Amino acid sequence: MLELKNLKLSYGTSQILNGVNFSVKRGDVVSIIGPSGTGKTTLLKCINYLVKPTSGTIDFDQIRMDYARPDKATIQAIRLRTAMVFQQFNVFKNMTVLQNVMDPLVVVQRKSQDEAREIALMELDRVGLSAKKDQYPAQLSGGQLQRTGIARALAVRPDVMLFDEPTSSLDPELVGEVLKVIKDVTSSGITSILVTHEMQFAKNISNRIVFMDAGVVAAEGSPSEMFDAPANPRLAQFLSTELETQ
Fold first, then answer.
1. 244 domain residue, yes or no
2. Which residues of 14-46 are buried (b: 16+ CB within 10 A; e: fewer)?
3. Core-most of 109, 114, 159, 208, by most CB within 10 Å?
């Protein structure tokens, strides 16, 4: 469904991604794990061109783009098939919860107000926020803000959901409510790619784990292969440290 080949990205003399090869099949739930600063979020943002790779290619079903020679039409086609949930919520403070979810449906997909409202209400119910639809972001908790972001992403009916460390900005007591919603989303069959430091959660919801280190995919496999019997010494070291702190 989606494949990145030899993806490279550098900022000046700093090599962030150093030849990443990464693929996702339809219906996969893939969690990307690894040390901070190893390019996990950057990889995610390369998929829908929120950052510009130096080189490499992406194949998304019948869509193909060479990152060295990108074109606007292909970028737009890829973006229309993906939706991202960000670390920092990225909701509009001057809009209600309902308006935030409706916005991409009206502005990007050109749906009528009535149709957008119907879809938005359905997705807000899905994430447990129907009662908050007329409130503004300033009136919400961090967990409710993130659930608003998830509802907005789901509303555009993406082929692939991209979750960029969706619990990293939350107080510990709010993490559970967001993880529950993500689990419900991924169990519905939608293809999902998740960057996370929640190791046990990644193990439980994913059918594949990708370990990144030093800007490359250093290991990948099923959750049992990666967590229960890691063959890669660097992965084993990383997991021992992470699991001790969780």
1. no
2. ebbbeebebbbeeebbbbbbbbeebbbbbbbbb
3. 208
Q: Which amino acid is at 120?
A: A
The answer to the question of residue 11 being in a domain is no
Number of H helices, E strands in the chain: 9, 10
Please choose, from the candidates 161, 136, 138, the residue with its C-alpha nearest in 3D space to the C-alpha of residue 47.
Answer: 161
Would you say residue 137 lies in a domain? Answer: yes
How many structural domains compose the chain? 1
Cα separations in angstroms, 164 against 16, 32, 42, 71, 198: 17, 10, 10, 25, 12
Which residues have a Cβ under 8 Å from the Cβ of 88 and sit 6 or more positions away?
169
Q: Which residue has the tokens 């990708």?
A: 210
Distance CA 150, CA 113 (A): 20
Quick check: is 141 in a domain? yes
Mean pLDDT of 161-185: 92
The range of the structural domain enclosing residue 110 comes to 92-157
Mean pLDDT, the chain, rounded, equals: 94
Q: What confidence tier does 245 reach under pLDDT thresholds 50, 70, 90? A: low
Angle at 157 between CA 59 and CA 142, to 5 degrees: 105
Give the dihedral of Cα atoms 18, 44, 204, 38; nearest 10 deg: 40
CA angle 43, 195, 164 (to 5 degrees): 80
